[in-house]
Fold this sequence. Notes:
Layout: H1 2-25, H2 28-45, E1 49-51, E2 55-66, E3 71-82, E4 87-97, E5 102-113, E6 119-127, E7 130-131, H3 135-142
Antiparallel strand pairs: 1-2, 2-3, 3-4, 4-5, 5-6, 6-7
Amino acid sequence: MKTLRIVFLIVCGILSLQALADEEHETPAGxxxxxxxxxxFEKRWGDxxxxxxxxxxxxxYAYHANSRLGQCxxxxxxxxxxxxxxxxxxxxxxxxxxxxxxxxxxFEEEKSTKHLGxxxxxxxxxxxGGKCDSESEFEALAKPYxxx
Length: 148
């Protein structure tokens, strides 16, 4: 148990040092984007964990200061599962331009499994005014915004 605690502390220390090193190499625009993204996310999702009576929701995010476009983007990833007799799970990705305050696109997949094991799935996907058909297609279309 003591060894596990030491390993945990070492890993936490390494991650903290890595975060500081990354921050030192970030541009002023990158640091501002990071701050804006964190505020945007925390305002809507808090720490990202939302427990429920029959399930839970977990949200995470990634941000990017796109120097080519001169904009700050956030990609929010939300997974939800709930239900006892009928299990419903959903996964959504939403791409926002925080500089202009607008949504660029979203992907949502909802799956429901009834007690007999029959699963139904529904996908809704749009990005920058166009339609997409899958999570991988959404991610490919979002990639140019989330990297230079």
